[in-house]
Amino acid sequence: MTCKKCQQTNEKAHSFNTIGKMSNGTTIIFTCTTDAYTDDDSVNNFQYYKSHFDAIKGNWIWVVDCRDFNTPLSFETGKLIVKYLLQNHKDRLKGFYLFNPSIFFNAFLQLCYPFFPQSSRAKIHTYSDSILELIADLQRIGMPSKDGHALMLKFVKHS
Ligand SMILES: [Zn+2]
After folding, report:
1. Which of 30, 81, 103, 116 is most buried, by the most CB atoms less than 10 A from its CB?
2. How far is the CA of 147 from the centre of ligand 1 (A)?
């Protein structure tokens, strides 16, 4: 259990799903923006995410299906999330795997890039249409097949 909103909704509010672990112990988290609850206040939204980030132990990677990242509110919330992750999870967040980035999301990423150190830029991977490619990349760096399968099911659910 992590943030209050998710405690009320059986962990579904923010679509912050633990998929499994890589062979080196890194936790794989999956979020689909379509499922994530949004308050109409970006600071509230950010606080919910922060509760989730703070509950993660050790290294992690974040797989995000970005299809619904397309409003000024997601933009504002995204800025707060990026700032927090850069300040507090720069070393532990080992990869950021983005599927289905909208034009809006790509614009957001372009604006953020100048603030990212080179080491952080290298951790960002985007995939426009191939879930299989994303999953194959994760398996190459140590994701077990069963976790790859779980991730696949999550993506299929939304396609
Ligand atoms: Zn939550």
Report:
1. 30
2. 22
- Kindly report, residue by residue over 45-97, the tens digit of the pLDDT: 899 899 999 999 999 999 999 988 888 888 899 999 999 999 999 999 999 99
To which CATH superfamily is domain 20-158 assigned? CRAL-TRIO lipid binding domain (3.40.525.10)
> For residue 75, how far is its CA from the centre of ligand 1 (angstroms)?
18
Q: 105-153 pLDDT, tens per residue?
A: 999 999 999 989 999 999 999 999 889 999 999 999 999 999 999 999 9
Kindly give the distance from the C-alpha atom of residue 38 to the centroid of ligand 1, in angstroms, as a whole number: 10
Cα 7 to ligand 1 centroid, rounded to whole Å? 7
SS (H, E, C) the chain: CCCHHHHHCCCCCCCCEEEEECCCCCEEEEEECCCCCCCCCHHHHHHHHHHHHHHCCCCEEEEEECCCCCCHHHHHHHHHHHHHHHHHCCCCEEEEEEECCCHHHHHHHHHHHHHCCHHHHCCEEEECCCHHHHHHHHHHCCCCHHHHHHHHHHHHHHC
